[in-house]
Structures are given as structure tokens and as C-alpha cells.
Amino acid sequence: MGELAVALYPRDELLQDCGMAGASPAPGGITLAHNVAERAMVDALMAEAVAAGGTVLDAPRDKPWGYTGYFADPDGHPWEVAHVPSLQLDEAGRIVLG
């Protein structure tokens, strides 16, 4: 998919992971993710999202796969900002697969 990657994750687990379990109405079952090369970039992008009108859903924290946080954009769509050390990113920040 060029610069994009699709990952499948069970919906209930996704809602739990992004801090939206039990939300009413629940989001449509997807999140968009922005993967970054450095842990500190997660905090910086989360702060930038909040300054632009976003709402923190799940503050950045360590998880088994990396350091991630979630925010909702002004329309309520959940976004993940993630530093996943096992992902290789190219110089433009795109995930390198294979």
C-alpha cells in the first residue's frame, strides 16, 4: 500500500486500548495511527494534537509493543501516536515492510 500499512485488531480490544471501552456512541471500529521514530515524539505530537483541539483518550504510556497514546480529533475520531521499536521506519517516517 505504498506509504500505508493496515493492521487488524479485535474491536473490543481496540476500544479498551484507546480508552474508549463503554463509550456511547462507540467509534466506528478503526483508529488512525501515526508511527514515529523516537519515544519523545509521541509526547510532542500528543501535545500538538491537544493544542489543535484534540482530546486525550489515553495518555502516552508503555505497552508491550512500544510507547503509545491516543487522542480524539475535534470530530471524535480516535488517533494513535506510537513509537514501536520493532518497526523500521525510513527517512520519511514510512514503515518499511519485509
Segments where pLDDT lies below 50 for 5+ residues? Answer: none
CATH superfamily: 2,3-Dihydroxybiphenyl 1,2-Dioxygenase, domain 1
Bin the strand percentage. 25-35%
CATH architectural group: Roll
Taking the sheet with the most strands, its summary is: 4 strands, mixed
> What is the 3D form?
globular
- The structural domain count equals 1
Terminal Cα span? 13 Å
Mean pLDDT, to the nearest integer, reads 85
CATH class assignment: Alpha Beta
Strand order of the largest sheet: 1-4-3-2
Question: From the alpha-carbon coordinates, what is the Rg to the nearest angstrom?
Answer: 13 Å
H-E string: HEHEEE
Characteristics:
single chain; 98 residues; alpha+beta; 2,3-Dihydroxybiphenyl 1,2-Dioxygenase, domain 1; four-stranded mixed sheet; 20% helix
Provide a descriptive summary of the structure in words.
Pfam families: Glyoxalase. Residues 1-84 form the VOC domain. This is VOC family protein. With 98 residues, the chain is α+β, with helices and mostly antiparallel strands. It has one domain (11-83): 2,3-Dihydroxybiphenyl 1,2-Dioxygenase, domain 1 (Roll). It is 20% helix and 27% strand. It contains 2 helices and 4 strands, in the order H-E-H-E-E-E. The protein has a 4-stranded mixed β-sheet with strand order 1-4-3-2, covered by helices on one side. Strand 3 (66-72) and strand 4 form a beta hairpin.
